[in-house]
Amino acid sequence: MRFKIVAFIALIVFAFACSKQEEQKPQIAKPAVKASHEVTVQEVIQVTEYTYIRVKEGDAEYWMAAPKAEIKEGEVLTYNQAMEMKSFESKELKKTFDSIFFVDKLDTKLGTGSMTQPMKPTISQEDVKVEKAAGGITLAQLFANPSSYANKTVTVKGKVVKMNSGIMGKNWLHIQDGTKSGSDFDLTVTTSDNVGKDQIVTVTGKIVLNKDFGYGYSYKVLMEDAKVAGENNPHKMMSM
Questions:
Q1: pLDDT-based confidence at 170, cuts 50/70/90?
Q2: N or C, where is the chain less crowded by C-beta within 10 Å?
Q3: What's the domain range around 58?
Q4: For residue 115, is it within any domain?
C-alpha cells in the first residue's frame, strides 16, 4: 500500500515537472503575413481584355496581369492578393510566362489611395439568330428569370462570339443566340472543351448566380463546367 502511495506521488511530481517544461519552451513565432505589396512598373503590354505589367518589388522582378487598365511605366502600385500561374501561355501575345501573377485590384500610390480603374471589355450584341435547342432554353428565358434556373443544369444553343482559353484552368466562352432580356444578351460559359470562335454550339451546364472568383471575374449569371456539342470549326481559338 505504501509503495502505491509513493508511486502515485512520484507520478504527480513527474507530470508537474513536464508541464513546467512545456510552459518554459520557447514559442516559435509565426512569420508575419505581408499586408500589401508595393511594386514599380517597368513595362506595360495592353491586350484585348487585360493589361500585362512587368514590375519590380525590392530586388525581385516579375510579371502580373490585371483587368485592362490605364497603367504607365514608372507608376508605383500596391496590391494585397494575387494568384500565381506557372507556364501560362498567352496566345494573343504568342508568349509563355514561366510565372505570372493575376490580380483583380491595383491601387496607385498617389497619397490619395485612388484605385487604378479597370477598363472593362465591351461585349456587343451581334446580329445572330439561333434556334433554341431541343429541350433547352433561350438566353431571354434565362435572363428574364435567372433565380428559377439557379443551381440547375440547363441547355442553351448559341454562337461563340468570344473565346478565352486557359484562365484558371478553364476555357471561357461568350454565347449569344439573338435573344435578350433587358440589357442582358450574352452568357459566359466555362468549359474544359475546346471550341472555336464563331462556332454554333449547344452548351449544357449548371447555372450559378452572383459568382465572384476574384481577380476580375465576377458574374451575375454564369454557366459552369459545361459540356459542348457542335461541329468542328477551323477558327483559331482566342486567348488573353
A1: confident
A2: N
A3: 37-108
A4: no
